[in-house]
Design brief:
- The longest helix has 20 residues.
- The chain has an eight-stranded antiparallel barrel with strand order 1-4-5-6-7-8-9-13. It has a two-stranded antiparallel ribbon with strand order 10-11.
- It contains one helix and 13 strands; from the N terminus they run H-E-E-E-E-E-E-E-E-E-E-E-E-E.
- It is about 10% helix and about 65% strand.
- It has one domain: Porin (Beta Barrel), CATH 2.40.160.
Length: about 200
């Protein structure tokens, strides 16, 4: 009987060590939430749509529970522009939104339940599906939290929610048209606050 207890104790220690020292990959799907934003001449609307994300996480040996994390997320959206409040909004183009970020995740392990917090910075690409409009790159930061539920010694389910904050660092125009000038101008420090809710799987190796 004592040997059985010892065996299960050693397995528990091994699993805990693996969960804290393994490289981790995650594939998630969910929904990205956007909204209406004031610009210098009117308002723009970025449409909410389903989104997908992929993450690569590395443990930081010096700090138990801390992981360096790289993330990429994608959503297919559209942009509308309303020049005046008494005029109808105009659909400008479909576009894809790509977040490229790096940062840290801190987690606490409670057996199979692993809550965590996320902080990342990077960039976001707004890519119009219309060749007449230019791409727009902005600085982006994110904060979030979530949890992982281990259903296997090397993987399980991951849930998370994030606030996403694209930031216009300097005053300037976005989505200019080749040969036709620009319509949408953002002031310095403008934040296009977004968010996403994601769920998927993670795997450690």
């Amino acid at each position: 009987m004592k040997n059985s207890y010892l065996f299960f104790f050693l397995i528990s220690i091994a699993n805990s060590s693996l969960s804290q020292n393994a490289i981790e990959i995650s594939a998630l799907g969910g929904y990205q939430l956007s909204g209406n934003y004031a610009v210098q001449s009117g308002n723009i609307r970025i449409h909410s749509n389903p989104s997908f994300a992929f993450l690569l996480s590395f443990p930081v040996p010096e700090t138990p529970g801390l992981m360096a994390e790289f993330s990429y997320s994608f959503t297919q959206s559209a942009l509308s522009y309303q020049e005046q409040s008494n005029l109808p909004a105009q659909d400008l183009f479909d576009m894809s939104i790509h977040y490229f970020q790096a940062g840290a995740t801190y987690q606490e392990i409670f057996d199979r339940f692993i809550p965590f917090a996320i902080m990342q910075v990077g960039g976001v690409l707004f890519h119009p599906q219309n060749a007449h409009y230019e791409n727009a790159w902005l600085l982006a930061a994110s904060l979030g939290m979530g949890c992982k539920i281990r259903i296997h010694e090397r993987g399980g389910i991951r849930f998370q929610g994030r606030f996403l904050a694209p930031i216009q660092v300097e005053e300037g125009a976005l989505w200019c048209q080749s040969g036709s000038g620009c319509t949408i101008y953002l002031k310095s420090g403008t934040v296009l606050l977004q968010g996403d809710i994601l769920m998927g799987i993670f795997f450690q190796f």
